[in-house]
Design goal:
With 66 residues, the protein is an all-alpha fold. The chain has a domain of 40 residues. 59% of the residues lie in helices and 0% in strands. The protein has two helices and no strands. The longest helix has 24 residues. The model has no long low-confidence stretch (mean pLDDT 87).
């Protein structure tokens, strides 16, 4: 019997920590999206969630120290 590999859902918003990372992500997604408005909307949602997570981390002291 094969052992199953445990996986977790990937959330890009957890990895967008700086405005530069968010801008790069937006730029790449806009290049890939073409005329796909849903893809662009999801990208903007990812960035909005990332900004919220970053603000929460700063407010609670969990943000990386520069």
């Amino acid at each position: 019997m094969k052992k199953k590999t445990a996986t977790t859902k990937y959330d890009v918003a957890e990895h967008l920590r700086t405005p530069e990372e968010m801008a790069a992500y937006l730029e790449l997604c806009l290049e890939e999206a073409g005329d796909d408005a849903a893809f662009i909307a999801k990208t903007l949602g990812d960035i909005a969630r990332a900004k919220g997570m970053s603000q929460f981390a700063r407010n609670t002291g969990f943000a990386p120290q520069d």
